[in-house]
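Checklist before submission:
- one chain only
- standard amino acids only
- sequence pasted in full

Submission:
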Amino acid sequence: MTRALVTGGAGFIGSHLVEALLRQGDRVTVLDNLSTGSESNLRAVRAHPALSLHVGSILDEALVDRLTREADMVYHLAAAVGVQWVLQHPLESLRTNVRGTEVVLASAARWRARVLLASTSEVYGKNDAGALDEDADRVLGSTRLSRWNYAAAKGLDESLALAYWAEQRLPVVIVRFFNTIGPRQSGRYGMVVPRFVEQALRNEPLTVYGDGQQTRCFTYVADAVEAVRRLAQCQAAVGEVFNIGQAREITIEALARRVIELTGSRSEIVFVPYEQAYPAGFEDMRRRVPDCTRLRRMIDFAPSTGLDEALAAIIHERRALLGTPH
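Returned file contents:
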């Protein structure tokens, strides 16, 4: 039985990962400050005898060290999340993503725990050249813009992890999530899919930022968690970086229209200029598409859940939460 520590385990992806680890027989400890996560995300497993929850920060070195000492495997998911949250809390985002990760890695190295570090497609910045493999160039904008500071911080997290592997042989695996979606994801922090779904269920206008022709690839959370679970068990994955994402693109306008169709909503689409939706100087990218060849070669896995199936699961959950009729 593996003893797993999941930082950020009460968050969107983290809570799904916790459930998967408990199903495979692990003993799981969750550390979460509940700033963007919620204890309610763990409702289905809260009473599980192999689960313990600690409300606290990854910046608390003594707490992190105590919990890591008791772990064989650390899944480090705790981070500032969502474009809007990062823009509104730039200093806290940097502290959490840089200092917090250093605290976790140092403790893991001290107690020789294996680490899986969750990173993000944001590290690629404005590189929208097409399918991006793990060694593609990172194109970042001005340091005056918090979005690119977030991208730089997550890139530094990866560099720290790889440095611990190179110099101290700390076994680390890095994953970059591409637009993961599913039940429990909040729209409060700039996540587009839950925001669209909630607007549609309320028959409110769906607000599309920019011209809506920017494309993204959306990955269902169960697929992302399965990839994480397999990579954590793969010795050959140590010291490597892996994209986790679907390769099928959709424009944000087309996504909005699909949500309206699937919900049977009377909503219209309203286009909102970036300068009205975000602080001055906000920059976006036109495309963000993952190349997941390395993932397939390493663990013979690729995300397979289609967008409609993922949207249906999210719509079902949101209907229940909002009390809207089917």
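Reviewer check: The CA atoms of residues 80 and 93 lie 5 Å apart.
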